[in-house]
Amino acid sequence: MSVIFAVPMGILSDKFGRGKLIIFGYVLYSAIYFGFGRTDNKISVILLFVLYGLYSAATDGVQKALVSDLIDKNKRGTGLGIYNSLVGITLLPASLIAGVLYDNVNNSAPFYLSSAIALTAAVLMFLFYKKFSKVSQI
Question: What residue range is the signal peptide (predicted)?
Fold first, then answer.
């Protein structure tokens, strides 16, 4: 689904800035995961998955483009390698925490935690964007 949204998100990223689109994506992710935690309606779940495609398109490629923008031209491969390594390394503890919450709290808890973390990330990215957008266009 994110393939459908990828080109328009890339255009928006070039036009409005990568930071703004990433913040939008994190807020959208937060809303989607909160919705997953709240609903058991099949139509709502389908709509949330469509919106998840929009989130994915708004963040996946745009984050890599932002890393490429921030890293020296001669170090882009290294920068992208570090970025992808960190993303991969964080997936294991995230999955373990989600599994523990699912088993020991309830099936909505991992979604609520993910929603809260995404909203926190959006706020932190906003603060980062606000601070550094004066220096350079993110």
Answer: none
Separation between Cα atoms, residue 45 and residue 52, nearest integer Å: 10
Q: Is the pLDDT of residue 40 over 70?
A: yes
Nearest to 113 by CA among 26, 37, 19, 41: 37
pTM for the model = 0.86
CA–CA separation, 79 and 45 (whole Å): 36
Question: Could you tell me how far CA 110 lies from the centroid of its own chain?
Answer: 16
Are 25 and 66 spatial neighbours (Cβ–Cβ below 8 Å)?
no
pLDDT category at 13 given cuts 50, 70, 90 is: confident
Neighbour count for residue 45 (Cβ, 10 Å): 13
CATH: 3.20.130.10, 3.40.50.450, 1.20.1250.20, 3.30.830.10. Which one for 2-132? 1.20.1250.20
End-to-end CA distance of the chain: 26
